[in-house]
Amino acid sequence: MKRLAVWAGALALAITWAGSAQAQSTLASVKAKGYVQCGVNTGLAGFSQPDSKGVWHGLDVDMCRAVAAAVFGDAGKVRYTPLTAQQRFTALQSGEIDMLSRNTTWTITRDTSLGLNFAGVDYYDGQGFMVPKKLGVKSAKDLNGATICVQPGTTTELNLADYFRANHMSFKPVVIEKLEEVTNAFFSGRCDVFTTDVSGLVSTRGSRAPNPADYVILPEVISKEPLGPVVRHGDDGWFDIVKWSLFAMINAEELGLSSKNIDQNLNSTNPAIQRFVGASGDLGKMMGLDNRWAYNIIKQVGNYGESFDTNLKPLGFDRGLNNLWTHGGIMYAPPIR
Amino acid sequence: MSTAPRLRRSWSLYDLRVRAILYQVLLVVAVGLVAWFLILNTTHNLEARKIASGFGFLDREAGFAIGETTLVAYSAADSYLRALTVGVLNTFRVALIGVFAATLIGTLIGLARLSRNWLLSRLAAGYVEAMRNVPLLVQLFFWYTVIADNLPGPRQALSPLPGVFLSNRGIALPVLHAHPAHAWMGAALAAGAVGAWWLARWAKRRQALTGQPFPSLAAGTALVLGLPLLVFLAAGAPLRIELPALRGFNFSGGMTLTPEFAALLGGLTTYTAAFIAEIVRAGVLAVDRGQFEAAYALGLRPRRAMRLVILPQALRVIVPPMTSQFLNLTKNSSLAVAIGYPDLVSIANTTMNQTGQAIEGIAIIMAVYLTISLAISAFMNWYNKRIALKGARPA
Question: Of the candidates A330, A326, A321, A324, which has an alpha carbon nearest to the alpha carbon of residue A250?
Answer without folding.
Answer: A324
